[in-house]
Write a structure and sequence with these properties.
This protein is mainly α and about 100 residues long. It has a domain at about 30-99. Helix content is about 75%, strand content about 5%. It has six helices and two strands, in the order ααααββαα. It has a two-stranded antiparallel sheet with strand order 1-2. Strand 1 and strand 2 form a beta hairpin.
């Protein structure tokens, strides 16, 4: 019975995409829309990171993931290479879990 929800979700995604293509051009050229749309992926990614870092099921938690995120954020602020950021975060999570 997983096929029915899957097909409904697929149809909903298609209709959402189709509705975006059907918008009048004058709405898309509005300066407010032009300023807002590029910020949406950043906001969605930040929300996804926050939910996955600070929650387990329906509970808020503060564990090794939060420490790893803090170290990764610090490494990014110091302009470290991507692989170093990932490695530092993974090592931090492993050390915190070890303790």
């Amino acid at each position: 019975m997983i096929w029915v929800p899957l097909l409904v979700a697929s149809a909903a995604c298609y209709l959402i995409k189709l509705s975006g293509l059907s918008l009048p051009q004058r709405l898309l050229l509005d300066p407010r829309i032009q300023r807002t749309v590029p910020l949406l992926p950043i906001a969605l990614l930040a929300a996804l990171i926050a939910v996955n870092t600070f929650s387990t099921g329906t509970h808020l938690v503060l564990d090794a993931r939060a420490a790893a995120l803090a170290v990764a954020g610090a490494a990014v602020l110091l302009r470290a290479p991507f692989l170093l950021v990932v490695g530092a975060a993974a090592a931090t999570a492993a050390l915190v879990r070890l303790i």
